[in-house]
Amino acid sequence: MAPQRPDGAGAQNDKGAGKRPSKRRPVLAAQPRSEQLYAALDLGTNSCRMLIAQPKGGGFHVVDSFSKSVQLGAGLEKSGRLSRGSMARTVQALRICQQKLRKHKVKRMRLVATEACRRALNADDFINRAHRETGLRLEIIKPEEEARLAVISCAPLVSKKTENLLVVDIGGGSTELVWIDMKNVPKRDRPQSIMRLHSGFIALDKSMPTARVVDWISVPLGVATLRDQFNDVENDAARFALMSWFFEENLSDFSPYHDTEARERFQIVGTSGTVTTVAASHLGLKRYDRTKVDGLRMSSTQIDTVISSYLEMGPDGRRADPRIGQDRQALIMSGAAILQALMRCWPTDKLSVADRGLREGLLYAQMSADGVLDSGAF
Q1: Is the pTM of this model over 0.90?
Q2: What is the largest CA-CA distance in the chain?
């Protein structure tokens, strides 16, 4: 599949060229209370993950969480369909999520599915089965919304000195990239201007300083789909090199890719299991610690050193590494190939690591729409 860039994608001028986004459905919740709980569920190509949280200041406090590898997209690349086994595993995980939602009496929630369900021919059958067996109604979101939610989840990590921002979300089935220009936003308002993108990439409210989305793209290559493309290549290093260059070829329609002008005050924020695993390896953590990883800045040299160590380990060594493990040893190399391609393409030698993503974006969007976040917290 070619990268998805629906109406509205592509370079935009200051007046917000492109198709105006459709109006979002009005929030039906009554007057929000700060003690109200919110939930966000992200069903991706590999994992089913959920957060239940309570608003706190400009962010939230996590009350409960769930994460399980369900491999919903296993075999999808060849058959175009979700398999019986993958659907059964996923429904079982969704039952656990439903029990947690009931236990905490959560009323405000968004439960979304992404690339695997966007591509599968039998996605509607799966959505109906999940609803029938768990009572949960999953919503298949479009690539633009997935990209937007990833962006706003990273707002707290945006430096007030940043003028150009690239947010990269490496998923299981796709990778979203969003390029944002904040030069005309006062420094103190730059992180908050990212939060205001929750309503759409084209700003309709001109009364407040707004970050301008220059371009965005959804490449249908994530850690699972890119790995599947090159499963027949036996040599570990050759497979890695092919994956990295193949991913870069799929960025050719992304307009900032062709802009070689050196940029000052430029920041890349990477959000994914790949990025956080590379960060944990760089820090030498024996046990994962989110407080040490989230917000860490890594140089391109440090990233290359970690990736080189993965190649030296080989498949058996990566399986034995506690930061990678049996299930992710192949996925970490396809993710590392994407990460290396990105660092090769743009004029910076630093990457900000974000242990956050779609779930956090879903929570921020709901809470921001309800007006229960402290806007001055950033």
Answers
A1: no
A2: 59
